[in-house]
Design goal:
The structure holds 2 protein chains of 2 kinds. By secondary structure, chain A is of the alpha/beta class. Chain A has a domain of about 200 residues: Rossmann fold (3-Layer(aba) Sandwich), CATH 3.40.50. Helix content of chain A is about 35%, strand content about 15%. In chain A, the strands form 5 sheets. A 6-stranded mixed β-sheet of chain A has the order 2-1-3-4-5-6, covered by helices on one side. A 4-stranded parallel β-sheet of chain A has the order 13-14-15-16. Chain B has 4 helices and 7 strands, in the order αβββααβαβββ. In chain B, a hairpin with a 2-residue loop joins strand 5 and strand 6. Chain B is elongated, with a radius of gyration of 18 Å. The chains are: A alpha/beta, B alpha+beta. The interface between A and B is medium-sized, with 20 and 23 residues.
Chain lengths: ~575, ~150
Amino acid sequence: MNVLKNLVGILDKVQKPSRYIGNEYNAIYKKKANVRLCLVFPDLYDIGMSHFGLHILYDIVNSSDFASCERSYLPWIDMQGLMKENSTPLYSYESYRPLREFDVVGFTLQYEMSYTNVLRALRLSNIPLHNADRSDSDPIIIAGGPCTVNLNPMKRFIDAFLVGDGEEAILEMLDAVRSGTREEKLRKLSTIRGVYVPGFSNKVSRRIVTKMGKAPLAQLVPYTNVVHDRAVVEILRGCTHGCRFCQAGMVYRPVRERSAKEIYDIVSNVVQRTGYEEISLLSLSSADHSQINEIVSLLKNLDDTSVSIPSTRVDAFSVKLANAVSSVRKSGITLAPEAGSQRLRNVINKGINEREIFDALEHARKFGWKRVKLYFMLGLPTETDEDVIEIGEMLKRVKKMGFESVSATLGVFVPKPHTPFQFAEQIKPEEAWRRYKLISWAKRFAKIHFTDPRKALIEGVLSRGSEDTCKVIEMAEERDLVFADWGEMFRPDEWFEVFEECGIKVEEVMSAKTLEYEFPWDFINVGIYKEYLWAEYERALNGILTSDCRESCTKCGVCMNFGVRNVLKGKGKIVPMPN
Amino acid sequence: MIERVLKRTGVRFEQTQGFHQRMKLSFGQALPTGIIDLSGLFVVSSVRPIGKEFIDLVNSVSPKGFEISNFEEVPKDFKLSRVLNGYEFKMLFIVTPPLDMLETALKVNNIWIVKLYIPFNSSVPKNGEFGQFLTLRSKALFSEVQVDQSIGSR
């Protein structure tokens, strides 16, 4: 079935119809394939197109000799309504085929607030929401992405989860479902390293690629404005700083860099095949690449192509780097000190001191940045009122440096699974608001934006939930709590009602824990010893810093458990393992 | 989109000055969603002269549904708005068109074709506005061409 003619009648009645038409330049419609996969980003196209993981898998699967990959995204509410009216199911963007007709449908779980969107996509595709209700005629539903490190809230809806890097596992998974009954396929999937199949698997270990593989070169070029409208090259994966609140820093270890030469070759190829004016050097912390200076100077040789770096570390080097890549002071510079006081920065292992922060800011000012935005968290472990007030003091000092505008965003800390702070408690919204009021006097110096602590609570419950949380996701989707990450669609009171009706013990989910506590995600091995996380937590409580593992091994366990190492191109050597 | 198509040809085009450099590109009149454009126009400035193989080159790196059919060299001070008189639109009906259009409509098998002349920068018919199932912008009309006065006001 091809839904194209259904679309003709409705496309001019919706907001931004170009988000639904597909067949962008470089889109691949592979007509012959033994196994057909459709990857779905569970949010709007405008957001989904910036998810680079999808582009990596799209390229790998379409380059294989037996499988094809198409894409889909969740339509906005207006389009959902019209599709329902004229019985148009969710379809792929290459062949306009309903998702139901694919062999495998894969979702990426990037953030918890997208869980209800996954269910909505299944509903719009007429695919049974529960894995227990699916039969041989339904596609196999798989899921990957960072949220799989606690897959519990989605356990009843997904057939097979992939935890970790997808580049090698995806083809193994597609090969496993080439033939057989549904049960045979699921059994085969459960034997693949990194794959967890509810009902067949007891535990799972993260899948890691030892080094960076093939990069997608003929990247998709959208017809419309999308959130990150540029070409992308992933310059390294993983991060070695070990910030104690950061889940990505823990679950993407070890660091694997691409060489400067390889990056240059990729970039010139991508620019030629896409026509993009800008390329982003993607990673968790690009300034950390051991050859970053070389990379930036090589890329300066490209005509009519500007370079951007996703974020700026809070130090002078990183600011100088940001200055080197951009000749225009776009919107402003964003830095994330995270905590207002040195004591608290040590607790979270973000060891930068005041002098370094202000040195970075002074460089920014001298280079011509007029606007600066700072990120902080409220509710970090051991935080006192004095720590919070110091945020205000910092903002005052920054304003007095002479920036035209200073703004600050305060987020409420959520203790994430597989981090040293998974043992910490999360503060309640009332407490968050109380702390926020402690610095309302600083509004004189900076525009302060406080993210809704009720959203943090909901995120906390969803990211730390056990299998019981599946009921929450299901009920929330039935009540239309979709696109929950979008301001206009966020209805916290209804979420709290759902928690109550599902019997979720919010207090228990948010309270502090000890090493002995059995977390719902303990069966998922990301490679780090739980004892290491606890030891880090104790060091945090005592304000002791832990080194960057590029410099010396911190014995977190990843390299020992999975036989991997940091891959650093610049130093020409790999960090040695202690005995 | 056009900027990226041109960039993919590998031919160098002039950029704007200043910090945020973009390709120097100007267009004829924009169209609302849903109208098929057979007469889109844009003006761009290449760093070096280009030959007629440029048409095939552009089309080889264009997305499906976009194609250039012709190009012409114009003087440096050329402005589209000065020479563009208006556009011819065609609306296709499978139901009977409105009475005031019926007189000038051409009937081919079971389809009525209504031609409209829209002066440059005036409002254009919207998709389906008169009951038509398809709207095309079929021709661009330049100053040398005379516009038929009796239908010109639409």
